[in-house]
Amino acid sequence: MILAAGRGERMRPLTDTCPKPLLQAGGKPLIVHHIERLAAAGIRDLAINHAHLGEQIESALGDGSAFGVRIRYSPEGEALETGGGIFRALPLLGPEPFLVVNGDIWTDCRIPEVGLAGDDLAHLVLVDNPPHNPEGDFALDDDERVRTQGSPRLTFSGIGIYHPDLFAGCTPGAFPLAPLLRRAMDQGRVGGRHHQGLWFDIGTPERLAELDRLLERR
């Protein structure tokens, strides 16, 4: 699943007329970078949620055949936050663990295999803390377990594998993902790994321009 429902307030005025996932870097929309990398990794069945200007996303990507994938959409109208958006899309994702990627990041991280260890409910890819999140989000211990407390503190990359049972007891509507992850961490059921390569959180026009310059050089 690619998360593409965010309004992109900090990207205005760029996102006043264009949904954030369709903003371009390196000559192609951000979301197309994801689709191409997922297809290259052998992941061909995709779900994409959308809200703000979502019809533009469907028009640009179609059924995915142009990229060698099959895309199904989960329209939200009003954005449901990360947890609510994934929960709404569960019927498209099936009963097995699934990969979720934030649509507003770019990374050279290898696409993780879609699977979970033991009775884990989630597996998170973490990165070094960027300047805009110096305190990090979670800790990763020596056994590659993700914890709410501890050190070193790292930042969640926006790439995760989740079991549908992570959302057990949830009800339709808008809600964040982080509380569900913290509950699973307290149960010792979240694994993770540290990606130390390139990673961009495209949260501002300046970061988008920085990524564009990098990709043009590459």
TrEMBL record:
It comes from the Bacteria. InterPro entries: GlmU-like (IPR050065), MurU (IPR054790), NTP_transferase_dom (IPR005835), Nucleotide-diphossugar_trans (IPR029044). The keyword S-adenosyl-L-methionine does not apply. The keyword Transport does not apply. Pfam families: NTP_transferase. Residues 1-111 form the Nucleotidyl transferase domain. Keywords: Nucleotidyltransferase, Transferase. GO terms for molecular function: nucleotidyltransferase activity. This is Glucose-1-phosphate thymidylyltransferase.
